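CO-FOLDING WORKSHEET

Operator: S.A.
Ligand of interest: 2-acetamido-2-deoxy-beta-D-glucopyranose
Run index: 278
Mode: holo prediction, single chain
Checklist:
[x] sequence pasted
[x] SMILES validated
[ ] output reviewed
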Amino acid sequence: MFSVGLLASLFCLVVIHARSTSAQCWSKNACIATSVCSAKGGTSKAGLCPGPTQIQCCSCSTCMDVKTCSAKGGKSQPGICPGPSNVQCCKLGSGKPKPVNTMLTNLAAILRRAGLRVLEQPGWKTRGHGKMASVKSILIHHTAGPSKGEYPSLGVVRDGRKDLPGPLAQLGLGRSGTWYVIAAGRCYHAGKTINDSIFGNSNSIGIEAEGTGTPSDNTGHRYWPPVQWNSYVRGVKALQAAYGVPTARVLGHKEAAVPKGRKVDPNFSMTEFRAALR
Ligand SMILES: *[C@@H]1O[C@H](CO)[C@@H](O)[C@H](O)[C@H]1NC(C)=O
Ligand SMILES: *[C@@H]1O[C@H](CO)[C@@H](O)[C@H](O)[C@H]1NC(C)=O
Ligand SMILES: [Zn+2]
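OUTPUT RECEIVED:
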């Protein structure tokens, strides 16, 4: 009896001592569930918060301004950084830094790694209307080119037209499912979009698949060679994984272009296409 009582009071003293000195979480509001903390990109430390054991002190090692975070391709998470409200925990996607203000010189490697047939066009690594600001989206096009041939639109996509200098897309997709890597820089493929900060030329990879596209049809993909459509899906999946582009940001040009109705491409169902990306 006596010894248990003594132990208990010693324990109390230790706890009181600990509480009254330093061992406290940096903010009461940062005492949150460990699962919530890790979802925000923070690290939990036990023993600094009152309450159940899963409530721990959450801190972040990547506190920064929300704009700086988004420029790095990260997602800002409130509540676990000290300082003003614009300073938040920056959760960077799966360790892969997103491209910022750069040429996309890894396009060929990304597609090849996905097991696709890739033909690199001479000079592609330096071709473009300047660098890409970022990669936030992927736009799906068809060329509306000739009705026969593997990739007869190559020259136009690379060099442009009288009214629009090339390159007109980073990537081409032939009727055989072969990918043509045309430019690593910014390309004139999007025009005015529903949100240029996501879908504009500076932030979007353009893919021009060979197809006449006429008459235009918004259902299925039955008029497309299966080998080409399957390759389209596989290639876009690989690009999404490499650049962290969510499926909701894979749009058909007809969906992204404004005013509505300005573009009809691609002439297959984008709902079906996005479903195939999952
Ligand atoms: C465009 O997208 C950005 C980033 O998601 C967003 O902050 C902005 O509000 C959007 N603009 C419009 C007009 O929807
Ligand atoms: C769509 O594009 C394909 C590929 O060029 C073409 O064969 C087809 O005729 C077009 N039309 C429709 C209705 O899908
Ligand atoms: Zn288009």
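REVIEW:
Residues 28-92 form one domain.
The first helix runs from residue 2 to 20.
[x] output reviewed
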